[in-house]
Design a protein that fits this description.
The chain has about 350 residues and is mostly beta strands. It is about 10% helix and about 60% strand.
Length: about 350
């Protein structure tokens, strides 16, 4: 009987999540704003048995086959292009530079490389998909995380990020055409160790627009086994703790990636046109985290992502902008991360 209120509450949050995501999609939130709101930092905020932040992370992700086409009825026709798989390698690190009881500052760096591998290039926008095939899309993110605790109940957070995302040949590029700028400000209330909620907003200046979007935080531990971790409207995750250092998260998450890419005529190496490429999905997923020893954890994640939008914007001639229809894909990732135990943090 104790689990019934949790189920009812979860169903209500699912409805709120779907409605909020539908509204947010009109504004197409950028990936950095989304990630900044979801990312766990190594600091005081958080509830009992909550999932831990990643001080150092190495992860490999694989996404299954999918179609790109101009319409739903053409997913398997001659116009469609077929992606055999997408692979993504991610490495990130957070370094504490100030760790006082009431003020914590961390610097963060992340690199990710995402590569689309095509089995077939169809007639629909052949040049775009030929240029995308096998071409690694690089992401470099430089972040600052600041958390200020006013007392045991109230805290505020500020996060700033500059990222560079594109298909440049070198792994790192600071060319302004690849740059996006993001920030987050949040205020949280933690009335007891098992309950935390708050509000905030994200600011983003990306390839497509400048935007400010609100979000909400709600985290609660119901008992020794069950809890919930949410960032509305982009993430709702139920948590089951086998032990405090062995846990499962499952639920829904909105995710997005965007890049500046070069599109060559007939996939050649001559003149090119800069495009902005963005894809967004709703992921139904489960994540398993377990502490292996000392500071080292193992993480595995799997699920199915439902595409919401795949958009290609021509920066020279907007009449050539297009959205592609694409099919859903299964995904799986494995990784290891390092984080200090809670009793080693300066609270």
């Amino acid at each position: 009987m104790r689990i019934c209120p949790i189920r009812c509450f979860f169903c209500g949050l699912l409805f709120c999540f779907a409605s909020a995501v539908k509204a947010q999609l009109l504004h197409e939130p950028d990936e950095d704003g989304i990630e900044l709101s979801k990312e766990r930092a190594i600091c005081r905020p958080g509830v009992t048995n909550q999932s831990v932040g990643r001080g150092l992370l190495l992860e490999r992700r694989s996404v299954g086959s999918q179609f790109y086409s101009p319409g739903i009825g053409e997913l398997d026709g001659a116009n469609a292009s077929v992606v055999s798989h997408v692979e993504r390698l991610t490495g990130k690190v957070k370094i504490p530079v100030l760790n006082k009881p009431s003020l914590k500052v961390l610097l963060g760096y992340e690199y990710a490389g995402e590569t689309f591998h095509f089995d077939r290039i169809g007639y629909f926008n052949r040049d775009v998909f030929s240029s995308l095939d096998g071409n690694t899309l690089h992401t470099n993110k430089y972040s600052v995380y600041i958390t200020k605790s006013f007392n045991e109940d109230y805290y505020a957070g500020l996060r700033l990020r500059t990222s560079y995302r594109g298909d440049h040949e070198e792994m790192i590029s600071f060319d302004s055409r690849y740059a996006t700028y993001s920030g987050l400000a949040a205020f949280g209330y933690k009335p007891n160790p098992d309950l935390e909620y708050g509000v905030g907003f994200t600011f983003g200046r990306n390839f497509f627009r400048t935007q400010i979007l609100p979000f909400g935080i709600y985290n609660q531990t119901f008992n020794d086994k069950w809890g919930i971790e949410t960032v509305l409207p982009v993430q709702i995750m139920m948590r089951y703790n086998f032990t405090p250092s062995n846990l499962l998260l499952f639920g829904l998450e909105y995710q997005s990636k965007s890049y500046s890419i070069d599109v060559y005529e007939q996939g050649g190496e001559g003149a090119f046109t800069p495009y902005y490429f963005r894809h967004a999905e709703i992921a139904f997923k489960a994540t398993y985290d377990v502490n292996l020893f000392s500071w080292v954890w193992f993480t595995a994640e799997g699920g199915y992502q439902v595409p919401l939008n795949s958009r290609f914007d021509n920066t020279v001639d907007e009449t050539l902008n297009f959205r592609a229809r694409n099919s859903g894909q299964p995904f799986f990732s494995v990784g290891v991360f390092v984080t200090p135990p809670r009793d080693r943090l300066n609270d």
